[in-house]
Amino acid sequence: MRYPILPYIRLILDTAVMVAAIRSDAGASRRLLVAELEGRITLMASVPLMIEYEAVMTRPEHLKASGLSTVDVNALLDAIAAVAEPVRLAFLWRPIVPDPDDDMVLEAAVNGRADALVTFNRRDFARAAERFGIAVLSPSEALTRLEANT
Hints:
53% of the residues lie in helices and 11% in strands. It has helices spanning 15-23, 28-37, 47-57, 60-66, 70-83, 103-111, 122-131, 139-148; strands at residues 10-13, 42-45, 85-86, 116-118, 135-137. 39% of the residues are buried.
């Protein structure tokens, strides 16, 4: 499969990638999120995915590990929503991945015609994403592609 050249790539970030972005300021997940906020990549999100981000990122264990408050996370999510490309869910593709909680992530990628889905869980997404021509990348792979093309 030929992958698009960054920075014009349109990405869907799995919820675990968003959590990693707030928990570690040195990781690839954080750097991808910063690149999105700086306009160097296009992050795409559906309403259900944004709700999922909020529900998971504001769990006490993630707030404690990140040193952020619920207000801080909500401000970050507001900033993301302001620059993210909204995805309208015209079709639901369920069930398609082994974990039903992951269906909303894949649905956003498919409906938004994402170039890549960024996740730590490549095994569960790979087969389904391939059916739709969507690359499945780890945060470090996505970041490597971004840095190679900037």
